[in-house]
Amino acid sequence: MLREDLADLNAFLTVAEEQSFTRAATRLGTSQSTLSHTIRRLETRLGVRLLTRTTRNVAPTEAGDRLLGTLRPALDSIGDELDQLTELRDKAAGTIRITASEHAVLTVLWPALAPLLPRYPDVHVELSLDSGFTDIVHDKFDAGVRLGESLAKDMIAVRIGPDLRMAVVGSPGYFAKNTPPVVPGDLAAHRCINLRFQSSGGLYVWDLSKDGREVRVRVEGQLTFNNTTMIIRAAAAGFGLGYVTEDQVQAQLATGELVRVLEDWCPPFAGYHLYYPSRRQPTAAFSLVVEALRQQARSE
User: Fold this and answer.
1) Nearest-angstrom CA–CA distance, 145 and 129
2) Which of 14, 92, 214, 240 could make a disulfide contact with 209, Cβ separation 3.0–4.6 Å?
3) Percent of the chain beyond pLDDT 70?
């Protein structure tokens, strides 16, 4: 394969993933005109049209889809092999990119990484805080953290945290003016504080269950945040009911700053799992991080 073929194929893959010449050019660090010329050159060389261009987006043709099916795993394999070269160094090295919620970072990831990183100065970790569901392959992350084990079949899941429980909480002042809810349906009469996912923009639905009965409640209220810290603060200030993990409000519940309701509708569920593609060949640096998280989970 000629060197220019590999560069052109990478350009095609980037345009197909971004579905936009503008975004792809930004990602590749080149101009839109140069990128368009590269794709035209590749199509001319192959003798087939690879992309369909409209005023709104760019999509692969049938020939483009066929090429993508071969190209993605091939380039990923090359990337994995290049990553393995870091294992030839005396010490583990490289950058590990992980996407996780703020809660997962504070309670699971950071406690494991803080004592690990000083021992391996050539290992760099980038933590991207996001409460939504991130496509780690598309967004070039090495791994992600998600609750439970409901993951795609091509992902490996490693449990890294204990079981969790959710809690519906409000301030004593709020309940002095509002009758506490007894069943999920009562939430319709209450001001609730919403959580908006940063990535998808959607609102978090409150999942409640009891004796095998599951209820998904879309709540309404005056306030919406994309951060649970502010939800807790607003609930404590009397602005409505918040729905957060139990461990985040233990201190406020102990002091009486917050009061818990619907506790019997909040059973335990599987905690945080680290997930990454099964086809990935872990680097020495990545293996160190995974093992540190595993050891911490065993000690809890």
Assistant:
1) 10
2) 214
3) 89
Residues 56 and 195 in one domain: no
| 18-65 tens-digit pLDDT | 888 888 888 888 888 888 888 888 888 888 998 988 767 788 898 888
* 152-179 pLDDT, tens digit each: 667 888 899 999 999 999 999 999 999 9
Are 58 and 111 contained in the same domain? no
Q: Are residues 122 and 192 in the same domain?
A: no
CA distances from 169 to 73, 226, 262 (A): 47, 18, 9
CATH classification of the domain holding 116: 3.40.190.10
**CA atoms of 152 and 220, how far apart (whole Å):** 32
The answer on 172 and 256 residing in a single domain is yes
- What band does 259 get if pLDDT is binned at 50, 70 and 90? very high
